[in-house]
Amino acid sequence: MGLIRLLVIAALIYIVWRVVKNLLSSPRQDTPPASGGRQELMRKCAQCGVHVPDHEAFTHNGQHFCSMEHQRLYLEHHDQ
Question: What are the Cα distances from residue 64, in Å, to 46, 54, 56, 72?
């Protein structure tokens, strides 16, 4: 009878521990996600390889760039 009681107590302690761990690790609902909950397409700069959000990328003939300067440098180098 003592072994069964010990197993029940150990199981209860384990369950309580898991519930507390889950409660402490769950994200708070009062803090909104940094991105507003939406994902955004990232584009890789053809000149330097840096990834920039799609709405900030400069595009020319299917190539994407992180700045107009990198677009200019790329076109100068590859149009020759």
Answer: 6, 9, 10, 12
Q: Which helix (H) or strand (E) holds 21?
A: helix 2-25
66/33 Cα distance (integer angstroms): 25
CA distance 50 to 42: 10
* Cβ–Cβ < 8 Å for 30, 39: no
- In the numeric block, the tokens 């299917």 are attached to 62
**Does residue 2 carry a pLDDT above 70?**
yes
Kindly state the tokens that stand for 13. Answer: 């302690």
Percentage of the chain with pLDDT > 70?
82
Asked whether 48 and 66 are in contact (CB, 8 A), the reply is: yes
Residue pLDDT, tens place only, 29-44: 655 556 566 788 999 9
